[in-house]
Design goal:
mainly alpha, membrane, UCP010219, DUF3159 domain-containing protein, transmembrane helix, transmembrane
Length: 259
């Protein structure tokens, strides 16, 4: 006589396996979507890198303007008022911050009005508002840059942790972009490339801190603002290009997932 428990047990095992597969598939899909939205998503599968591809990866013309102009307007306004017009630093702080916040608000409204993707503009607006609030609270212009220190430190630490637990974050992103899932971890060459690229991105965030934090402590607002701009979108674009070159070398054309 057949064991009466055999069939239900087999069904349960198959049901559990199917549930696990569904969960894994959904996780992979979500990771692929998240990876696609990253800057690498616009580059990873391209055979040739054009200026248009790179511009798209860093947010397009509008995204670049949203990232750069509020900070540039703050720096220029503050420098003109304090250096050329002789205003006291605290007197110049409010109009400089007002100009920066006002521009961020305009960008956000423009995104909403044109039914574009408002996420980047809203995130930028929140960052500008938080930084302005901190600077107004302390009465110190250099505090407009403090939140950026914590953001860069958080990214660097998160990437370092991913490296230490042998799940380098850049490898995870690229793996899902390339349709490789987590299989890259079993490939020594891909694993080493993922570790190397994760270290590169750690150095990117750490370099910002190494250069900018000393400028904060010596109270050099002009140099701090300028380096913040130069080590923002321009340096980010260079690191993206370098990452693309390494990914392109590791993943042969035939192995790339078509768009």
């Amino acid at each position: 006589m057949a064991d009466p428990d055999a069939t239900p047990s087999g069904n349960d095992e198959r049901a559990d396996a199917a549930a696990d597969d569904a969960t894994s598939g959904e996780f992979a899909r979500q990771m692929a979507v998240a990876a696609e939205r990253s800057g690498l998503g616009a580059l990873a599968r391209d055979e040739k890198l054009s200026g248009g591809d790179l511009l798209k990866a860093i947010g397009g013309v509008r995204g670049v303007l949203e990232a750069l102009l509020p900070g540039l307007v703050f720096l220029v306004t503050y420098a003109v008022l304090t250096s050329l017009l002789g205003w006291a630093t605290q007197d110049a702080l409010v109009p400089a911050l007002g100009a920066s916040v006002g521009l961020a608000v305009v960008f956000t409204i423009a995104r909403l009005a044109t039914k574009g993707q408002p996420t980047q503009a809203i995130a930028g607006l929140i960052g500008v508002l938080a930084s302005a609030a901190l600077s107004l609270w302390s009465g110190d212009a250099r505090d407009n840059y403090v939140l950026g220190f914590f953001t860069n430190a958080a990214y660097a630490i998160a990437l370092l942790v991913s490296l230490l637990v042998r799940w380098p974050a850049i490898g995870v992103i690229v793996g899902f972009l390339m349709g490789d899932g987590t299989a890259w971890r079993a490939d020594r060459r891909k694993m080493r490339a993922a570790q190397f690229l994760t270290i590169v991105w750690i150095c990117f965030f750490a370099a910002r801190l190494i250069v900018q934090v000393p400028l904060y402590f010596v109270d050099n607002v002009a140099a701090l603002g300028l380096t913040r701009l130069l080590m923002g979108v321009p340096l980010y674009a260079l690191v993206l290009v370098f990452t693309w070159l390494v990914v392109r070398a590791v993943y042969p054309s035939s192995a790339r997932t078509p768009e």
